[in-house]
Amino acid sequence: MVSYVKIPSHLKPSDPQGPDLLTQERNLASFDVKELTLVLYGIKDLERYHTILKIIENDPVFDKSNIYFMGRNELFEHAIKKEKRLVQLIRENKWKVEELQFAEWFLDMPGPFGAHRGMFIPTLIGQGTKEQKEKFLVPALNYQIIGCYAQTELGHGSNVKGLETTAIYIPETDEFEIHSPYLTASKWWVGGLGKTANHAIVMAQLISNGKNYGPHPFVVQIRDMKTHLPLPSITIGDIGPKFGFNSTDNGFILFEHVRIPRFNMLSKFSQIKKGTGEYINPPNQKLSYGTMVLVRAIIISGVRVTLARAATIAIRYSAVRRQFIDKDEPKKLEDGSIVETSILDYTMQQYRLFPVIAQSYACFFTAKMMVNLYTEYTKQSSSGDYSLLADLHASSSGLKSLTTTMAVDSIEDCRRACGGHGYSSFSGFVKFYQDYLPNTTWEGDNYILTHQTARYLLKTFRQVTSHKNPEIYASQSNKNPTISYILQYLNEPNQKCTAITPSDFNNHEIQLRAFKHRVAFLIANVVDQIDNQKKSWNSMLVEINRISRAHCQYLLVQNFITALHQPSEDESLRMLHNSPALKEVMTSICNLFVLHTMEKDIGDFLESEYLTTPQARLLRIQVYNLLKEIRPNAVSLVDAFLIPDSLLCSALGRYDGKVYETMIDWASKEPLNGMTLDFNPNNDTFIRKAKL
Ligand SMILES: CC/C=C\C/C=C\C/C=C\C/C=C\C/C=C\C/C=C/C(=O)SCCNC(=O)CCNC(=O)[C@H](O)C(C)(C)COP(=O)(O)OP(=O)(O)OC[C@H]1O[C@@H](n2cnc3c(N)ncnc32)[C@H](O)[C@@H]1OP(=O)(O)O
Ligand SMILES: Cc1cc2nc3c(=O)[nH]c(=O)nc-3n(C[C@H](O)[C@H](O)[C@H](O)COP(=O)(O)OP(=O)(O)OC[C@H]3O[C@@H](n4cnc5c(N)ncnc54)[C@H](O)[C@@H]3O)c2cc1C
């Protein structure tokens, strides 16, 4: 890239230790960073990581040096080139999903094929019959057809049952007629639809013999395979500029009595019989919503790296950035001279940033739980057993909501912790935040999703409490955390915390009891208000959100603590257990996650009277103690995430700490600096031109 401004060469570094600050930080670590990285990735994935990163970083098509200067059209063109090159690489290197996931992560460029890979293909896999897979999945996997997932409409997104697009079965021709009767039935927001896709999975109300069977998925060809123009009776467009995600062509589509063969209704679970139009029921009514469950689980798995990325930038920058001389504890160099304090040494900065590191590690262990649960469900459902679906739906909904909300809040916290430079695109936060933000809305608005989790919790509570002998459920409590805490609460509703010193709060048993008691207390309270005081669902929505949040926080806490203590077959966990140094630092991080989470929601714990006010103060002191304990390891804990500079794309967070050099280098490349006409308010000619 061209530099438009020549930087003077006489400049001396103002901070003699500047470049070495991160090295000094790294020397403080109490553990082996490489060992922790191995725990996070596992041996195989770490090899994959390096192989894929090398390919991506060396390919000129993926060069991101201009990325912060691109407008919407350039971004979209860049994304198209990226997609095409990615497909070549997939073919050349025979990449599978595991490799592709690394490539997509490193590329960090939402593109028009994202929904093809992330939703169109998974829906065909999950809901297509063998014949349908042959017809649609095989060409989709070969990129001969490009698909999207068209569910949301202009008028309805969350309320899937309220979708207005219809698919009416026409027995005479053995076809469905796809139709958008109202403007509000226009499919909207659909990723890849605006300019790219030639096929769509359309969620439409299935109507046969005059009866509505609810939303079902249909494969519809939408553009001509040669001319790429919309097919007759189909209107398509891009929905326009957005808060972020502008490298993707989110689109809209309207259908005017479009006919498709009966074959195109995805029929693994429910079918329409030829001629009679008889409807064959699915084994579970919600199986047509299966793609949402999968993608929610994938989103949860992705949160840990999102938090890791934000923390990496903010922690490294905070170590390099110095501001003010601390009057009480001035920082002295070896030669006795006093220097300004690294902002990472300010306790307020630690209090804002270290919990983000802890959240990332917490999400790592819960992502493992989510993957295990999803795998177990897939195994069972392949033999017709869908009994895990309710659990899976409840935990994936609530965790998607809690963890993505946590992630966007933390990206913004980290950005602000970088002061003014955090507001520059060069910080690496701006595009990152904009592109990540829709995770709180898509695949279910984060507030709506908590209703689903709460429904499940209330139902379980009622089931257990209405039984004459609730202990009958005890055998399930090992596998089902909800039953476990409900039973504990019923046995001892007035349980009290036994901590008498700050360090008592490091006791994992005390921590678990606190979270179990709090969530069971909140659920019992909501059940009482709805069932006995006859409160409406709507009047309880704030409490509904609270119980989903409390439940999912408990899951995060429980998964972290279990990972530290329970013997496991899992390769990563075994490595963790075998290294006392790693176990020690991870225990501090776990304690910080748990106690900081408690402190933020202290009202719940006080209200349930598990904690007393003096204990709440002790807890806060323990949070401060943990910040001090973690401080020497802060930079190494983020280094272990191994987020490459090419992905961070950040002047502030780069591994070598050369923040200021990069800031001015990148600023010199701003195209505005290359414009021949400078803005001069006293220049009459210019003002006249501007007026014209
Ligand atoms: C090959 C792959 C390669 C690489 C992949 C790599 C990466 C991919 C990663 C990401 C993807 C990349 C890019 C795309 C990214 C994003 C694009 C975004 C797409 C979208 O947003 S698509 C649209 C998503 N829309 C939603 O999520 C809508 C939200 N609304 C709903 O889900 C439901 O309608 C809602 C809110 C749950 C309510 O539904 P409904 O009114 O029907 O239900 P009830 O409340 O009455 O409940 C009835 C009953 O059913 C149960 N239930 C509801 N939903 C489900 C479900 N999904 N599964 C199971 N069960 C469900 C509910 O609990 C009730 O049970 P009960 O009666 O209580 O027993
Ligand atoms: C970048 C992006 C990409 C997307 N890609 C796709 C795609 O590829 N395919 C696709 O089909 N969709 C896609 N979507 C759409 C997305 O899935 C929906 O926007 C999302 O599900 C939310 O639905 P909604 O817009 O109807 O929100 P609404 O339901 O209108 O929500 C608006 C507000 O009302 C509140 N609210 C609504 N109902 C209730 C209630 N019952 N109780 C309490 N509060 C309520 C919500 O909490 C929210 O605050 C995408 C969206 C975005 C932003």
TrEMBL record:
All copies of domain Acyl-CoA oxidase C-terminal, residue ranges: 508-673
One example of a Gene Ontology biological process annotation: fatty acid beta-oxidation using acyl-CoA oxidase
Domain of life: Eukaryota
Ligand binding (FAD): T152, G191
The keyword Lipid metabolism is assigned to this record: yes
Domain Acyl-coenzyme A oxidase N-terminal intervals: 32-146
Keyword Glycoprotein: no
Active site per database record: E443 (proton acceptor)
Cofactor: FAD
Keyword line: ATP-binding, FAD, Fatty acid metabolism, Flavoprotein, Lipid metabolism, Nucleotide-binding, Oxidoreductase, Peroxisome
Protein localization: Peroxisome
GO molecular function term, any single one: acyl-CoA oxidase activity
Acyl-CoA oxidase C-alpha1 domain sequence ranges: 289-458
Coiled-coil portions: none
GO cellular component, one term: peroxisome
Family: Belongs to the acyl-CoA oxidase family.
Record's protein name: Acyl-coenzyme A oxidase
